[in-house]
Amino acid sequence: MPDADVPVPPDSTPTTPAKRASNRGFLPITLDEYLDLLDWTGRQVRADKRGAIPDNLLPILRRLQVNADAWIDTIEQFGRHFRRAVGRLSSLTALAHARGKCWFQGVTASKLAFG
Asked: Is the dihedral of CA 22, 79, 115, 33 positive or negative?
């Protein structure tokens, strides 16, 4: 489910069906922005490709309300931090309650990465 507290720009509406959240309107970014972020993130995970966050990606992370300093750790430790779902604490809590759970793993990581 999309985060209600993150604005979705009109140009991020999907034009073709897809399995990716970015193509289904779950992320308030265009497909090109998603691919740029994905490419850069993949390079950061490889030790021989590390570098600073490029200027063109900072606005994307801000729009997603993602802590840029915690982004790479969130990706590298994804399987350790999250199990059933990932997102803002409000979204994790809502989904957990909808599924009859009190919480999902990832509360602390969610607060660090997504505020």
From this structure: negative
Q: Is residue 47 part of a domain?
A: yes
Is 76 part of any domain?
Answer: yes
Q: Does residue 4 sit within a domain?
A: no
Which residue in this structure is represented by tokens 């997603």? Answer: 64
pLDDT band (50, 70, 90) for residue 51: low
Total of domains in the chain: 1
Helices (H) and strands (E) in the chain, counts: 6, 0
The confidence score (pLDDT) of residue 78 equals: 82
Contact 27, 34 (CB under 8 A): yes
Q: The whole model's pTM is what?
A: 0.55
Residue range 85-107: mean pLDDT, rounded = 85
Q: Answer yes or no: is 2 within a domain.
A: no
33 neighbors 79 (Cβ within 8 angstroms) = no
Give the range of the structural domain holding residue 107, as residue numbers without chain letter: 10-114
